[in-house]
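Memo to structure team: turn this sequence into structure tokens by end of day. - J.P.
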Amino acid sequence: MGTTALFITNPFSSIFHQQNLPSPLLHPHRFLPKRVSALHCAHNQNPISSPALIRRWVLVSGVSLLSSAALGLQNECLAAVKQGLLAGRIPGLSEPDEQGWRTYRRPDEKSGGHGVGWSPIIPYAFSVPQDWEEVPVSIADLGGTEIDLRFGSLKEGRLFVIVAPVRRFSDVIGEDATIEMVGPPEKVINAFGPEVIGENVEGKVISMSVAEYSGRTYYQFELEPPHVIITATAAGNRLYLFNVTANGLQWKRHYKDLKRIADSFRVV
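Reply from structure team:
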């Protein structure tokens, strides 16, 4: 399906004040014995002195040792192969393309979400430069229980995905929600923007746009300060907020990549 986009002029105040960001949303070694000094009989504590018995014991022990060593080597080789296949790989993250960008798709086997129950979540996808890595999200995440994913780059910035039940906001929205059911762009940013930046969004929204991809509508908002691009949509019984943010210097130097990341977000 084709792509349509509607750009909306800023309905908010254009006066900006630099201030510190209080929101935590924005600011994872032998099988051989050491030494055989003496052999003891099973029926007494006298050391075995017979050379024949000693030789027999050594022979049997040697065979056993070789078998164990061979098995251990096999296991180590298998582990090494597995490690080689998985080393450096993040589940759901593709290999870099010819431009050095990778696509992340939320794995189907991933649990139903951090803090949003165990029901299935419709997967989402986005693209990032190859130096961006996943940042662990714990149940004690200061950003809240609905943070589903975090990614970041020391050089460019960071992103996080909020996946929240739409019933948290409306009892009349069913299991096939759309962002239009949640509300128009102005209502969505006023209601959910503070969850992202930790403060009221009045006077911080510098642009808004509405676009449709494959029949799904997406709202996008750019705010400053703090520097953040929020892409919002709804699917199933979830509201998705995809948030790309950076400090002032990162924003100035890498805005083009940050905007490309924000624009790449899709619920699949």
